[in-house]
Amino acid sequence: MNNFKALLKTIAISTPIYLYTSSNIVTIGRIQGESMAPALHNNDYIIINKPCFFNMFFKDLNKQDIIFFKNPDDNSLCCKRIVNKEYDVIDTNDELHDVNVVPKHHLFVLGDNRNNSIDSRKYGYVSEGLVVGSVNKTIGFVWPPSRWFDKLE
Question: Quick check: is 117 catalytic?
Fold first, then answer.
């Protein structure tokens, strides 16, 4: 009976801590697909800093940060790299050389594997409000263990 009480006590204490931590500080994200290769691969699990925690200890999101966000088209979770931030000028490199400016509070994101990525080139700018978190480049990989010591750029 004492073991059961100890188990219940452990669950009662750890559950709120886990829920608070995963909602506000850090959580684990899973990479789906190869759009972020070679930096991240399908089924890699990585640490994600939540915006609340990130904003307390770090500055705003920066170019080259890898973020998780809700896709503006279908609300699915995506992982891409920030290429441009608000007010940055984007040259589309087409024959007309259209110039676009990233709107306030928006990001232009691309997958590292440009030929295998659905990103801002398809669904446009991503509102900063859709950002779920940024990849923690210090801790980095959770799974697979073979990548624990890989440097995440």
Answer: no
Q: Which of 5, 22, 35, 50 is catalytic?
A: 35
Q: Could you tell me which residues come within 8 angstroms of residue 93 by beta carbon, excluding any fewer than 6 positions away?
A: none
**Class of the CATH-defined domain 26-147:** mainly beta
pLDDT digits (tens, 9 = 90+) for 16-38: 766 666 556 677 788 888 988 88
Classified as helix, coil or strand, 81 is: strand
Residues β-bridged to residue 79: 68
Q: Which sequence spans correspond to the domains of the chain?
A: 26-147
Residue closest to 46 by CA, chosen among 151, 136, 109: 136
Place of tokens 């925690």: 53
Q: The pTM is what? A: 0.73
